[in-house]
Amino acid sequence: MMDGTEQTHWTNDERQAAVKDSEGYVTADGRQIGGVLMELRNITLRFGGVVAIKDISFDIREGEIRAIIGPNGAGKSSMLNIISGFYTPSEGELWYKGAKRPPMKPYEVARMGVARTFQNIALFEGMSVLDNVMTGRLTHMNAGIASQALWWGKARDEEIANREVVEKVIDFLEIQSIRKTPVGRLPYGLKKRVELARALAAEPSILLLDEPMAGMNVEEKEDMSRFILDVNDEFGTTICLIEHDMGVVMDLSDRVVVMDYGKKIGDGPPDEVRANQDVIDAYLGVAH
Amino acid sequence: MGGDNLAYMSEGAEGLRSIPALLQRNATRFGTRPAYREKEFGIWQSWSWSEAETEIEAFALGLLNLGVEKGDHVAVIGRNRPTLYWSMVAAQMCGAVPVPLYQDAAAEEMEYALQHCGARFVIAADQEQVDKVIDIQDDLHQFEHMIYVDPRGMRKYDHRRLHEYSHIQNQGRAAYDEFIGELTARRESLGYDDTCVMLYTSGTTGKPKGVVLSNRNIIETAKNSAEFDKLGPGEEVLAYLPMAWVGDFIFSIGQAYWTGFCVNCPESAETMMTDLREIAPSYYFAPPRVFETQLTQIMIRMEDAGALKRKMFHHFMAHAREVGPKILDGKPVGLLDRLKYALGSGLVYGPLKNTLGFSNVRVGYTAGEAIGPEIFDFYRALGINLKQLYGQTEASVFITQQPDNEVRPDTVGVPSPGVEIRIAENGEVFYRSPGVFVEYYKNADSTADTKDPEGWVATGDAGFFEEGTGHLRIIDRAKDVGKMADGALFAPKYVENKLKFFPNILEAVVFGAGKDRCTAFINIDLTAVGNWAERNNIAYASYQELAGHPQVLETIRGHVEEVNASVAEDEMLSGCQIHRFLVLHKELDADDGELTRTRKVRRKIIAEKFHDLVAALYDGSDSIYTETEVTYEDGRKGKIRATLAIMDAKTVPAAPPAMAAE
């Protein structure tokens, strides 16, 4: 297992259930990947007559970088929305930390340690970077409204403690120089980084990244890749990401799920997936 | 004010023969006063003198534990951080020699210095620096251990020869009883003539040279210069210039330890301006380029400001330029003018100084390059006591400096206390002082070439003392001053400086030695020209495209012609007017070897690298196609191709009839 500090909300039974499932594996660069953290079993998602996701199963293991790839409209974002609790699957089960997760609101999911970034940046444009990142700590604050209004007692202590976490994230992602800058004034690449900062500030067990490199230039992609690897390495955060840039996906991830038209057509380490004929066909197209 | 403080300080000079000895004195005398501050996690963290001593001692014990011997060289690489300053003093405590290196240097550049000094130990700031040293470690025969400060990303590295800074400190604390005797003995045995630090000169020509400076050099210089400017323990400085540069060593270690003032380290290079504002230093140093950039930014922001603010700014700045410097120098100024200046202080100068972080500057210095008179006057008009000094690594910085109230943009001041100056027949400036370096490490020939047995050092600069004021004026590098084909004097830097005073021009290189006329390469300033383009709706995709824009070329031609007119007024140098020029398609860069790490032009290398362009300037062609190799920050190489237009500029007939204009 990774370090024990991460899973404070685990009961012993939960942990055993998670570990029992599998022993984990060792990656090419020597990282120990743990047991199953989240498992999706036979997930189907329908919107009226449209079947967005058809009977998909896969798991996400403790400490790994898991990628979901696929052509446009394959159902990747829907999958992420199911994990984050925004959609409830029409069929199938979602197991998280060894227990079946009942249908939940997104904020309840967030409290359980799932944080995400969005494909189209969803920050508060008029607020400073610092305030935006602080919103990532909301799930860790519970001072009453009176205390908040007077900024006295519990609210104050809480803010100081949370600010410390936020400052560590700011330091980690090297955005000190824009701490007080309104987000609306930042270039796109930095906004993406601020979004990552906000998600990290929640100290998640699973970090969901929806196209973290979309619209970036090569240099920004390199920076973002380094941050993703560093987050995984330093905090041991499990990461599940959707990405279009195949080069990035193959370099970053430990295991890849490939989707096409709502179906899973491949699952495994990058090299294996790359050699999979179905995957090649889906990406290059085949004559029907 | 400062006088009382300094009286008790000089009394101890005899016993204080090393930086660690000064540290001991400061820890007892200033105990709880702040010695270091660093902004981290958004908060200024501070360490008092006694805390700093504890930290340094723990690290020094750790170094002993690791096997640091007397006379070892310990390289220090990274941005200004208290831990790295402590590393240097800790190394001195162990009797070793700290060798700070430029952190932005590429691995190969570091290899030369590390190899040359035979460093057994390297203290690196972070993963980036560690990676560079790991790249070259197989070629470093004496290298043994590396210590890093920031553990981020370092977990997976092979830790047989790699140690974390805090671990070394912990080991040092744990081994206190075992090593404290040895450490005390080594600290006490440090003599005035032992090496204090070794600094590699950036070298406008050839390989870098390791300048060995003794405790005497550093402490005497720090003492003299601190007395000259009445520096006291209450000063605040911001340490942001490269640690490998002699100036930073003198300001942040020499003077700081001598007078006991506080050294503040910024959070990161990008936050420097914010940190400057928060600290509001009382003693500040910046190369002319920093002042230029700031002024350019102020001007750009004023262009974007509202009409009222803009009007107010220009109105009061005009007044400040007129009376500000006079008020600063204590010259008579009428009551009405004074009142208006006071009003301006409230409305414009005060807020502006506050934004710049200059509210508390009592002594400000600039050096390294000539500074434009307009730029210089701008800051002095605001009431900032900005002065010039002239110095060298070999002199432990100070050769001449401007006393308060005798400040002018065109001189570098009077000899610093304890410095003797002699002008040779060919105009070259020689000096002798307690700060004169011991030797170039492992390079007796160069030492002998530079320093004669009586201790006189050749500066390599040509200059003269102005009659009446006794101020030194520097014309140019002695070896750059040459003759043109017709025997007229050729002083490229004189012309280049005039060009660089235009905000649109970042860098200029003038050619003409042995030729019949002068020509120039010009680099545009992307901030200034880019802003102009934005305001005039001129679209551009790259530096190269902007640099080749016809309107930009016309603007630059205007600047060149203005400079020609001004050069023509000088009888001796009127031959240096620029007949043809081109605007370069890339910025001159230290990574490509075109500038030194301190951003001085490497004339010869540029002339060789762009020989096709130089030829085109002289063969009369209108344009030239060229391919240039560039090095990216990560060391990869690429090529850029461009067709450059060659522009003619009008010249002015010189005062005497000798030169014919085009």
Mean pLDDT of chain A, rounded to whole units? 86
Q: Nearest-angstrom radius of gyration of chain A? A: 19 Å
- Overall 3D shape of chain A: globular
CATH class of the largest domain in chain B reads Alpha Beta
How many discrete domains of chain A? 2
Query: What is the fold named in CATH at topology level of the largest domain in chain A?
Result: Rossmann fold
**H/E series of chain A:** HEEEEEHEEHEHHHHEHEHEEHH
Supply the number of structural domains of chain B: 3
Strand percentage of chain B lies at 15-25%
Strands of the biggest beta sheet of chain B: in what spatial order? Answer: 4-3-5-6-7
- Considering residues with a beta carbon less than 8 A from a beta carbon on another chain, report the largest interface and each chain's count: A-B, 17 and 13 residues
Which regions of chain A have little confidence, pLDDT < 50, spanning 5+ residues? 1-8
Q: Strands of the largest sheet of chain A, in order across it?
A: 8-9-10-5-11-12
Largest sheet report of chain B = 5 strands, parallel
The CATH architecture assignment of the largest domain in chain B turns out to be 3-Layer(aba) Sandwich
- Got a strand count of chain B? 28
As a percent range, the share of helical residues of chain A equals 25-40%
